[in-house]
Amino acid sequence: MSARNILVINCGSSSIKFALVNEAQTTFPLQGLAERLGSPEAVIHWQFGDVKETLSLPGADHQVALGEILPLAQEAAGGRLSGIGHRVVHGGEHFTDARLIDESVIEGIRTSAQLAPLHNPAHLIGIAATMSLFPDLPQVSVFDTAFHQTMPPHAYRYAVPEFLYKEHGVRRYGFHGTSHRYVSKRAAEMAGLPVEDSAWLSAHLGNGCSTCAIVNGESRDTSMGLTPLEGLVMGTRSGDVDPNLHSYLERTLGWTIEQVDRMLNNDSGLKGLSGLSNDMRTLSEACLSGHPGAVLAFEVFCYRLAKSLAGMACALPRLNGLIFTGGIGENSAAVRERTVEHLKLFGFQLDAEANARCTRGLAGEIQAAGSPRVIVVPTNEERQIALDTLALLDA
Ligand code: ADP
Questions:
Q1: What are the residue ranges spanned by the domains of the chain?
Q2: Residue 230 Cα, ligand 1 centroid: separation in angstroms?
Q3: Per-residue pLDDT tens for 166-180?
């Protein structure tokens, strides 16, 4: 059988990220982004092999953009596309793993939309469009939340009245599950351990950031909660704050719930603390020249990350290693160094040269002799979604 091709699609409210994954190739034959959909500036950028192209599609919606993307994917796959994998942010408690899309799955995604009002409706538009354009291709949904459905109640329940959980789904779900699952499997391979008999702390540090405790290939706890706002300091998100902050700002500044939500999601995190940028690269450079806001943002980011990892350790029976991934985790030796300094009690120590070397997609172990493993693992959510899609096609 020749190597199969899966198109992986991630539909946002005004964008579609896509990648063609070939099971035998490490790079994507085709990848791209459609953005500003629904506006006069709608555009698709893609790279096919070494060639980069742009197509302007004024006013195009998801359906029109997918009408352009799908033939591109068929061409890149030599006319042999085996299926489509959709990233879906929220599967609520309905989905514990990837699913072949049928009416009941669509209904489950719709029901979970209350919990992800910006994301799930956009995913449904993408699914409807690809199903109408390619009715005969198998389509699979892979949920960001599914990996964390193995958390025990003592990790996922909030200490609020029971009816809020039972009747309204108020609990911790966690996100970035596809990434934590992928990197923990890779880390186990790199360490020569069976993933079913291994225990990891994982830090996914991108624009959104989360930690996870993974035991024998299962999530036991994670830092994000009902929504992706809980937990760590992120690019523009605050992470944990006092839950009374809403009422305090209402009383003192007269802010509405919407104003507080916007502030916590869009104006906080690295951006809010530094007053400079949400981007760790910019902040790392500014730290070198002693910018006080950048230094503070960097210090709070690393301290809070270390504190979360130390908390996650409660979910582990033993520890095989600490994994760093995501744009910051894969590239910032400074963040890794500072974070690990706060975790001395666990015996962690880095090898400075190995830490400096592991950037720009280079995976490797970076601990000093005698320290538990610390591993940099580039994440690859697209490949994991393609693998899940292929596994369902094989089943
Ligand atoms: P997303 O969550 O949108 O997928 P990424 O995983 O690409 O985001 O991570 C984006 C973050 O990674 C940004 O804060 C960016 O500054 C950071 N980053 C990328 N390269 C570096 C680097 N060399 N040093 C520090 N931070 C970096």
A1: 5-143, 192-381
A2: 19
A3: 999 999 999 999 999
State whether residue 359 is helix, strand or coil: coil
Tokens 């509405």 — which residue?
A: 256
> Average pLDDT, stretch 304-327?
98
Of ligand 1's atoms, which has the minimum distance to the CA of residue 359? 23
208 CA: nearest ligand 1 atom: 2
Q: Which residues have any ligand 1 atom within 6 Å of their CB?
A: 206-208, 235, 279-281, 284, 326-328, 331-332
Assigned token pair, 384:
């994991």
5-143 maps to which CATH number?
Answer: 3.30.420.40
Among candidates 327, 329, 316, 318, which has minimal Cα distance to 374? 329
Backbone angles phi, psi at 107, to 5 degrees: -65, -40
What the block records as the tokens of 85 is 């994998």
Which class does domain 192-381 fall in? Answer: alpha beta
Please say whether the beta carbons of 326 and 204 come within 8 A: yes
Phi-psi category of residue 388: left, alpha or beta, with phi > 0 → left and psi -120 to 50 → alpha? alpha
The one-character DSSP state at 352 is H
Give tens-digit pLDDT for 359-382. Answer: 999 999 999 999 999 999 999 999
Burial class, 179, CB count within 10 angstroms (exposed 0-12 / middle 13-18 / buried 19+): buried
Q: Give tens-digit pLDDT for 268-295.
A: 999 999 999 999 999 999 999 999 999 9
How many C-alpha atoms does 252 have within 13 Å on its Cβ side? 7
Query: Which is the catalytic residue, given 144, 197, 221, 388?
Result: 144
pTM for this predicted structure? 0.96
Which residues, at least 6 apart from 56, have a Cβ–Cβ distance to it below 8 Å? 42, 43
CATH fold match for the domains 5-143 and 192-381: yes
